[in-house]
């Protein structure tokens, strides 16, 4: 990295394949390490912010990105000056919270048809909630797959697709070309934060009929559909 005289290098590891992430129990991305010190977790980033633990959100803000850059430089200087233990102690208290929500959050929105859409309408069924964006190419195939699941399982499941950071006219166009079998809505900041803030799209949440979180899938890896369908099969009796 520039400015450190060749003393600092950068290494990128694929999501799900990082031994460091597994050691620290990080189940989402991005996560930033300096040597073996976890200095930023997924919840530190996000589209909306509002959570007191989201240090660098909204991430698309230039001010948030500059804050992260400044913090990272300070962290690198601490490690290079032999103060790694000091940095580890400082971050220990901030890194103990879970990365994933435990249950379906309470939320209240209006769907694209103008009808109320809220968590209180979803009880008693397996629930899939997908956060997506119109500028995200992998989201398109994921949405079409979700529509096929709704046709397969019918009223035994509820599927809610929540668009973030997207023009409503483009969301309506996508909804019209995919399916009316799922419930479509624009997410607001409050809802996104209730789900732990959203740091990547697509992000797919699966909840059992009691509302307990069964699994969260980040991104669109090649085996997403296979793994999610296996989890869903255990939730639908």
Short overview:
This protein has 237 residues and is an alpha/beta fold.
Protein described:
There is one protein chain. The chain is α/β, with parallel strands linked by helices and 237 residues long. The chain folds into two domains: 19-95, no CATH class; 108-235, Glutaredoxin (3-Layer(aba) Sandwich), CATH 3.40.30.10. It is 34% helix and 18% strand. It is built from seven helices and nine strands, in the order αββααβββαβαβαββα. It has helices at residues 19-24, 62-80, 84-92, 137-153, 168-178, 189-194, 224-235, and strands at residues 32-34, 37-40, 108-110, 116-118, 126-132, 157-163, 183-186, 203-207, 213-218. A hairpin with a 5-residue loop joins strand 3 and strand 4 (116-118). Helix 2 (62-80) packs across helix 3. The longest helix has 19 residues, at 62-80. The radius of gyration is 19 Å and the shape is elongated. It starts with 18 loop residues before the first helix and ends with a helix. The model has no long low-confidence stretch (mean pLDDT 86).
């Amino acid at each position: 990295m520039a400015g450190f005289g060749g003393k600092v290098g950068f290494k990128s590891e694929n999501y799900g394949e990082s031994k460091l992430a597994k050691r620290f129990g990080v189940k989402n991305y991005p996560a930033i390490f300096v040597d073996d010190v976890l200095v930023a977790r997924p919840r530190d980033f996000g589209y909306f912010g509002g959570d007191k633990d989201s240090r660098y959100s909204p991430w698309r803000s230039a001010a948030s990105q500059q804050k992260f850059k400044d913090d990272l430089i300070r962290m690198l200087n601490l490690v290079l000056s032999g103060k790694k233990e000091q940095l580890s102690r400082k971050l220990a208290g901030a890194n103990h919270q879970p990365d994933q929500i435990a249950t379906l959050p309470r939320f209240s929105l209006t769907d694209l048809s103008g009808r109320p859409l809220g968590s209180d309408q979803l009880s008693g069924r397996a629930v899939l909630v997908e956060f997506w964006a119109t500028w995200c190419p992998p989201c398109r195939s994921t949405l079409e797959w979700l529509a096929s699941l709704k046709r397969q399982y019918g009223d035994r499941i509820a599927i809610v697709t929540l668009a973030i950071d997207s023009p409503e006219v483009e969301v309506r166009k996508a909804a019209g070309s995919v399916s009316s079998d799922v419930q479509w809505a624009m997410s607001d900041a409050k809802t996104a934060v209730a789900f732990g803030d959203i740091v990547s799209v697509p992000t797919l949440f699966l909840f059992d009929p009691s509302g307990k979180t069964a699994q969260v899938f980040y991104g669109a890896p090649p085996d997403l559909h296979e793994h999610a369908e296996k989890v869903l099969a255990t939730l639908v009796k």
